Amino acid sequence: MASTSGLPPLDPLFKSNAKRTYSVFASYPDAGLRDEEKSARLRLAVKMNDEYKHCKQLPPALVAQQVPVGPARPKEMRKAITAGPSSETSRMIASIDTTPEQRLSTFTNASKLSQALTLHKTTRTVKPTYHAPWKLVRVISGHLGWVRSVAVEPGNKWFATGAGDRVIKIWNLASGELRLSLTGHISTVRGLAVSPRHPYLFSCGEDKMVKCWDLEANKVIRHYHGHLSGVYSLSLHPTLDVLVTSGRDASARVWDMRTKAQIHVLSGHTATVADVKCQDSDPQVITGSMDSTVRLWDLAAGKTMVTLTHHKKSVRALAIHPTEYSFATGSAGGNNIKKWKCPEGNFVFNFGGHNAIINTLSVNSEGVFFSGADNGSMTFWDFATGTPFQNMEDIPQPGSLEAESGIFCSTFDMTGTRLITGGADKTIKV
């Protein structure tokens, strides 16, 4: 049997091994792991000497300026403030550092300092603007499938809806009467937009088609080919003759409205791009995707400017404020509606409280912000402060299933006084 007399003693080896293990697992909150007191004291003493030797005592010039202020508290009333687990460290420091205690007296302008501190501590609460409560005035039925998209025309006379029955219907906004049905899609119509500068209506659907309808002849005049799968959303640029579509092929595509040419493929998302919005100033295109990110795009270069990764689940809805240069995004789960500031996409705050899968968001120029969810719950918020002022439940059409109360799309009319929603019970509500 080999002799063990030539081997080093095991105790220091165990200790160094334990120390190494401790340094690996130190962040793990286990009371069983304790630092060795001797080495901890040594480390603290070295650190204190290193970092604080020049400022342990006040310079003579400052000491001369000090004046005594009032009677000090009696010793028994003084309390050491301990901050949780680090109290052991502070006791250790006190035992190592034996320099005489230097009491800093309050400066003569103490009152000013305390005023500044109290001012800093008061939280400034912004009062939300008062918004009148919203009520349901009309239910329009006529579609034979889920109503998935809605768009109001710029003149505010009529609006269009697209549904799972593959039909686009044009309705009178004032009376709710059906004026026209447009057929041509061979699958659910997922996106609609009416051009403010041309007599055109644009539609897209799960049949990979993007169509341009001439509203004077009521027929399709252009197709935009390129998407590899269903097209879920479209948006018109407010000032350029440009159309942006997005869909299940994880891309957004920018089209020249007139020549039907594909200008850019905005690629980068890794899952369905569920919503896309355009505005006339940068970022001109914003997309929300099922990969739970939001991207802001440089339209000229066709590249991502910023990727926002704050959402935990798929982002299904976007809304751009008409005047405030900010936008909101909606997803599923808690803290699921977020407000952002353009152009960098800085996070502003969460709209807390609407815990459901958010399918649609809309905001009007008065700052009324609407969120509609998969379970039929609706919330109206003050967009400036994030305060909810009204919660409602969608009541499914009589004869529908309880599960058919989901809200899929919403939009405010041009005046901002009417809200139109489309739902799973195949109705449109105003």
- Number of strand segments: 28
Uncertain stretches: 100-108
What separation lies between the terminal Cα atoms? Answer: 94 Å
Report the portion of residues in β strands: 35-45%
Share in helix: 10-25%
Radius of gyration: 32 Å
- The order of strands across the largest sheet is 1-28-27-26
Mean pLDDT: 85
Q: State the secondary-structure class.
A: mainly beta
Main sheet: strands, sense, barrel: 4 strands, antiparallel
Shape: elongated
Number of helices: 5
Kindly describe this structure.
- With 430 residues, the protein is mainly β.
- It has helices spanning 10-25, 37-52, 60-65, 87-96, 110-121, and strands spanning 139-141, 147-152, 158-163, 167-172, 178-183, 189-194, 200-205, 210-214, 219-223, 231-236, 242-247, 251-256, 262-267, 273-278, 285-289, 294-298, 303-308, 315-320, 326-331, 337-341, 346-351, 358-363, 368-373, 377-382, 387-393, 407-412, 419-423, 427-429.
- The strands form 7 sheets. A 4-stranded antiparallel beta sheet has the order 1-28-27-26, with no helix packed on it. A 4-stranded antiparallel beta sheet has the order 2-3-4-5, with no helix packed on it. A 4-stranded antiparallel beta sheet has the order 6-7-8-9, with no helix packed on it.
- The longest helix has 16 residues, at 10-25.
- It is elongated and about 95 Å long.
- The termini are far apart.
- Residues 100-108 have low confidence and may be disordered.
